[in-house]
C-alpha cells in the first residue's frame, strides 16, 4: 500500500463514528484526506468540522441498486473504516449472532463492494475484545465478528483490526492520546478506553506508519497502553507485542 489518501466511513453517525470524525479533524493530514461517509438515505444528522473534506453517500441497503451505489461511493478509496453498532433494539434474545443485526449485515455487503471497487484495506467494527481466536463452530453471540473476518479473508480483502476493550457508558471530553506506553491505572484489565482515544490511535496507525505493514494486522489499545498482536512461533496463535 502507498500512503493513504482516501477513507470511507461506515457508521459515522454513531457514538464511535462521530468520535472518529472528531479525531480526523485533529490529525495533521486532515486537509489532504478525501473522506467519504456511507449513510442511510435520510438527512445527515452529524455536524462535521468544516476543515474536513467530507462527501456523503446515501446508501439504501437491500435493493437491486445497493451494490452499484456502493461501487460509486468506494471507487478510489484506500481504506474503509466500519464503526457500525446497532440501533435496531434487537439483542441476543432475538437473534443468534451479532452478524444477524442490521448494521453488521450491512458491513458484509459493504466489504464485498469494497473488494470489487479496489479498496486496499478494511477496518471492521471489531473493537471490543478479541474474537478472532474463537473456534469456527462457536455458538457465541460475538462469533459473527469472527465470521466477518473469515469473509474478508475469503474474498481477499486485507483487514486491520483494532481491539479496544470496554468503552465507557458516557464518552468524556476528548483529551490528547498519551505518548507513553505505560498504563498509569495500576489496576487489573480491562482498562477503560475512550472512543476518542481509540479513534486517534487508529488514525495514528493508518496515517503515521508504513502503510505496507498494515494489511492483515491486529492492534490493541487499552487505556494508554498500546500493543500489537503478532503471530507466535509456529503461527498457530496470536500474542501481544508491546
UniProtKB/TrEMBL annotation:
Single GO MF annotation: oxidoreductase activity
Keywords of the record: NADP, Oxidoreductase
Name assigned to this protein: NmrA-like domain-containing protein
Pfam families associated with the record: NmrA (PF05368)
Segments traversing the membrane: none
Gene3D superfamilies, sorted: NAD(P)-binding Rossmann-like Domain
Recorded superkingdom: Eukaryota
Oxidoreductase is among the record's keywords: yes
Residues of the NmrA-like domain: 5-159
